């Protein structure tokens, strides 16, 4: 068992980010009460109101691309774990920009609170806003399943995690349609940035199709090869596609958890 002083030191280390965030928030609020600070806040609000949606899509593109890189079997496991870390970081960044985008649109009376959560709650003529709401809901779902991925692996159901997490491939084009069609007409550089994001994701997704088809054929062949009256047995690593990566990721996570004790 860890010593009391070691446990107390660990709690203090875990509390430092929260304390630093609170102090930063207090400092920002104090500066915002001054005239230069208020001007800076208004400038930042206008900037984020215009660009937060674009930043969300760019972060989503990076998250999807990094996620595809983490799933590539030809990439060494060490680099796949780095891709996975980048995938998580970009997903969290995308959610942060999404929340900022939604809050500012509500503050500017461009959308209602219900419309930000429930698709098409704004009524007729809000099709593209509703598509953005669906994309936002799917992004939250993808983030939650990513956080809970360890539970899916521990219960030998990585296929379920893959199926739910794959909603990102639906969420991303909906977000692009929303960004290009809802609200003000996009400038040319915004349109071109979306085109580049589209090309990057299409190339990344196309690189995954052969492996996904091979995994499906492999599982189907094993299911037909097993005798109907086979005796129960424990799951082997060969029963789940890419189990080597999952095992390495669990070992990496366990090692990091042990270092923090």
How would you briefly describe this protein structure?
By secondary structure, the protein is mostly helical.
H/E order of the elements? HHHHHHHHH
**What count of structural domains?**
1
Helix content: over 70%
Provide the residue-averaged pLDDT.
Answer: 76
Largest sheet: none
What's the overall geometry? Answer: globular
What quaternary form is this? Answer: single chain
The total strand number stands at 0
Q: Helical element count?
A: 9
Q: Class by helix and strand content?
A: mainly alpha
Uncertain stretches of 5 or more adjacent residues: 229-241
Radius of gyration: 23 Å
Measured between the Cα atoms of the first and last residue, the distance is 10 Å
SSE layout and pairings?
Blueprint: H1 4-32, H2 35-70, H3 77-107, H4 127-147, H5 149-154, H6 158-165, H7 168-181, H8 188-225, H9 243-260
Structural summary, described in words:
About 75% of the residues lie in helices and about 0% in strands. The protein has about 260 residues and is mainly α. The chain has one domain. Helix 2 runs antiparallel to helix 3 and helix 2 packs across helix 7. The longest helix has about 40 residues. About 5% of the residues have low confidence. This is Ferric oxidoreductase domain-containing protein.
Provide key terms for this protein.
0% strand; 9 helices; 261 residues
């Amino acid at each position: 068992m860890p010593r009391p002083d070691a446990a107390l030191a660990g709690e203090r280390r875990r509390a430092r980010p929260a304390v630093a965030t609170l102090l930063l928030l207090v400092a920002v609020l104090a500066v915002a009460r001054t005239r230069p600070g208020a001007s800076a806040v208004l400038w930042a609000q206008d900037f984020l109101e215009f660009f937060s949606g674009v930043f969300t899509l760019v972060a989503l593109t990076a998250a999807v691309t990094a996620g595809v890189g983490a799933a590539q079997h030809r990439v060494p496991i060490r680099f796949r774990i780095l891709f996975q870390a980048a995938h998580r970081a970009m997903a969290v960044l995308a959610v942060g920009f999404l929340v900022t985008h939604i809050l500012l649109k509500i503050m500017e009376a461009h959308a209602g609170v219900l419309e930000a959560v429930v698709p098409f709650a704004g009524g007729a003529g809000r099709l593209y806003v509703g598509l953005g709401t669906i994309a936002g809901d799917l992004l939250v779902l993808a983030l939650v399943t990513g956080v809970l991925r360890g539970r899916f692996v521990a219960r030998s159901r990585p296929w379920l995690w893959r199926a739910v997490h794959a909603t990102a491939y639906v969420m991303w084009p909906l977000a692009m349609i929303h960004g290009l069609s809802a609200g003000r007409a996009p400038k040319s550089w915004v349109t071109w940035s979306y085109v580049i994001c589209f090309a990057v994701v299409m190339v990344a997704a196309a690189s995954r199709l052969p492996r996904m088809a091979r995994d499906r054929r492999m599982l189907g062949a094993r299911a037909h090869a097993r005798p109907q009256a086979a005796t129960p047995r424990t799951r082997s690593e060969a029963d789940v596609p890419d189990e080597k990566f999952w095992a390495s990721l669990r070992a990496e996570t366990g090692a990091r958890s042990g270092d923090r004790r």
